[in-house]
């Protein structure tokens, strides 16, 4: 693989030079003392055989920044027990007292956005802009549930089978301890935003972030404790997924997982074996359809963000672009130019100048490159990109545009999860809907048209859990009041909305019979009781009482 050289990309800032001993020099806020404090929060080393720590690196340089303790299965058992002990007290607090903690957390999380962003950047390599935007997701989720939690969690009186004489009330009780297992692409937002509703509902949480990106998560957890979360309620365990995953799932009452579809299957099986519920947010192969009446002035910049934002490492990002015949040539020309322009703004810096960041690891960059090389070898056209940008940083990969991708290529059907998209030409609307749906995934889709009714008609026929009209993915993801999840192999359940809070509760049905009318009275013949029952059922239907 060749690297792009020749000073085409932005230069590194002086701040990110490395020390002579090969360790990274980090931004001034990120001191060794802070890293030691955060890694000291991991529930590890107290029980069972001590594990080798994980060496964390700064993605921009590939240099070491410190060691992350790894939890043994015994540590995980102890962490879950500690969370459970703290949860009993937490669940007994009135909801308004629990919410007061999150009122305070909202302010702290916003105030600390620069440190949060730096910690995200160190482990993930994304741009500062994207890291700050990621940091804002958690206060948005906090704010939404502060607004609605009382309504959603309130007991609901439903009425029993016999009006007035019986009642049935729906209560929402916390499940107990919830596991939150999160990936590295939006490590802070997913870990915290999925934990917040679980906590608000009255649960304890055992949180397992990805090793690469654990620091930002630990910092967010520290802020929640500063806001007043009771000690021990939110436990962080770290380790390789297969090492700690089974023990986590055996010791909790629900699992909220975000990651690949392959791992989602494993988690679903483990949850099934333990008879606990799970919510799975998985991968995608998301299509964008540019209808023939779309305005390319609007589409191009948005398509660039939808494909290359977060360097293409967003589950809802676009990898397949279907463009109407009439617009195709102009779209390809302008999109390729925009991708090149973006690539020239790549940079490994802790400031706001770079507009295109790194991939999260060299391993992942090589996986992305392998998809592109496979497509190239089998005859696809690489219009721009298709090369690592190792002179910017070891895990950078140039924004890439492909055409001529055929079904036998890896990128055609598999999630590449990098800054790579393929453009397809279409002339028949029914056919493009069929092509958009021809995937095992169903996470997100984007439809573009000046005619909203036209776009809606197409959207109604797309198989995806999120459909954005005249947007790539931001509108659905940021709408915290609406549940957001995948269909087909992209997930089970949803986050956000009422469902995103209620899934962390057990619904308990409390029935009351004020007078004994539901059982046969002593010595009453059964045929008489049956006649009365049938008459009552007919009457209640007629009066629309039941
Ligand atoms: P991954 O499945 O490899 O890992 C996700 C998390 O699961 C990590 O913390 C990992 O350590 C852990 N894990 C792995 N094996 C495990 C096991 N056997 N038991 C328990 N935990 C285990 O995914 P990834 O590569 O980190 O993330 C990228 C994937 O996540 C992509 O497919 C992307 O589309 C998906 N994703 C989906 C959403 C969504 O909301 N639908 C959001 C972000 C990312």
From TrEMBL:
Concerning InterPro entries, the annotation shows: Ald_DH/histidinol_DH, Ald_DH_C, Ald_DH_CS_GLU, Ald_DH_N, Aldehyde_DH_dom
Q: Which residues form the Aldehyde dehydrogenase domain?
A: 50-509
Manganese among the record's keywords? no
Q: Name one GO molecular function term.
A: oxidoreductase activity, acting on the aldehyde or oxo group of donors, NAD or NADP as acceptor
Q: Check the record and name the Gene3D superfamilies matching this protein.
A: Aldehyde Dehydrogenase, Chain A, domain 1, Aldehyde Dehydrogenase, Chain A, domain 2
Which residues does the entry assign to the active site, renumbered to this chain?
281
Keywords from the UniProt entry: Oxidoreductase
Family from the record: Belongs to the aldehyde dehydrogenase family.
The protein in question is named Aldehyde dehydrogenase (NAD+)/succinate-semialdehyde dehydrogenase/glutarate-semialdehyde dehydrogenase
Q: Taxonomic classification, please?
A: Bacteria, Bacillati, Actinomycetota, Actinomycetes, Mycobacteriales
């Amino acid at each position: 693989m060749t690297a792009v050289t020749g000073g085409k990309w932005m230069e590194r800032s002086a701040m990110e030079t490395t020390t002579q001993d090969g360790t990274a020099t980090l931004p001034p806020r990120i001191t060794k003392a802070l890293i030691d404090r955060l890694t000291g929060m991991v529930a590890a080393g107290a029980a069972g055989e001590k594990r080798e720590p994980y060496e964390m690196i700064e993605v921009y340089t590939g240099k070491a920044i410190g060691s992350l303790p790894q939890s043994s299965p015994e540590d995980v058992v102890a962490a879950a027990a500690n969370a459970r002990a703290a949860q009993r007290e937490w669940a007994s607090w009135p909801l308004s007292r629990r919410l007061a903690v999150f009122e305070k957390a909202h302010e702290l999380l916003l105030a600390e956005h620069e440190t949060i962003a730096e910690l995200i950047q160190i482990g993930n390599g994304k741009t500062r802009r994207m890291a700050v935007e990621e940091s804002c997701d958690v206060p948005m989720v906090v704010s939404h549930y502060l607004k609605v939690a009382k309504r959603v969690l309130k007991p609901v009186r439903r009425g029993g089978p016999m009006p007035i004489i019986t009642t049935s009330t729906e209560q929402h009780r916390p499940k107990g301890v919830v596991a939150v297992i999160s990936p590295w692409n939006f490590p802070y937002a997913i870990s915290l935003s999925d934990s917040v509703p679980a906590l608000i509902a009255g649960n304890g949480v055992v949180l397992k972030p990805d090793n690469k990106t654990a620091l930002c998560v630990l910092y967010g957890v520290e802020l929640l404790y500063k806001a007043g979360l009771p000690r021990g309620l939110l436990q962080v365990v770290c380790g390789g997924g297969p090492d700690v995953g089974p023990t986590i799932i055996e010791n909790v009452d629900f699992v909220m997982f975000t990651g690949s579809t392959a791992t989602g299957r494993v988690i679903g099986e483990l949850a099934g074996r333990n008879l606990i519920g799970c919510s799975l947010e998985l991968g995608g192969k998301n299509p964008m359809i540019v209808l023939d009446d779309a305005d390319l002035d609007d589409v191009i910049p948005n398509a660039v963000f939808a494909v290359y934002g977060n360097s293409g490492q967003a589950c809802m990002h676009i990898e397949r672009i279907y463009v109407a015949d009439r617009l195709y040539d102009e779209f390809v020309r302008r999109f390729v130019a925009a991708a090149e322009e973006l690539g020239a703004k790549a940079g490994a810096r802790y400031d706001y100048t770079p507009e295109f960041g790194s991939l999260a690891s060299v391993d992942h960059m090589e996986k992305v490159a392998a998809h592109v090389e496979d497509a190239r070898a089998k005859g696809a056209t690489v219009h721009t990109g298709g090369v690592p940008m190792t002179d910017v940083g070891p895990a950078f990969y140039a924004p890439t545009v492909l055409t001529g991708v055929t079904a036998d290529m890896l990128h055609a059907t598999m999630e590449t999860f990098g800054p790579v998209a393929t453009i397809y030409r279409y002339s028949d609307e029914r056919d493009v809907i069929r092509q958009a749906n021809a995937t095992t995934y169903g996470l997100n889709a984007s439809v573009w048209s000046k005619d909203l009714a036209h776009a809606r008609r197409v959207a109604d026929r797309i198989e995806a859990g999120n459909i954005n009209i005249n947007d790539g993915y931001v509108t659905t993801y940021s709408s915290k009041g609406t549940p957001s999840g995948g269909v087909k192999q992209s997930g089970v359940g949803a986050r956000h909305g009422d469902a995103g809070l209620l899934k962390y509760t057990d619904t308990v049905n409390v029935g009351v019979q004020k007078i004994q009318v539901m059982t046969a009275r002593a010595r009453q013949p059964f045929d008489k009781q049956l006649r009365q029952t049938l008459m009552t059922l007919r009457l209640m239907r007629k009066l629309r009482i039941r």
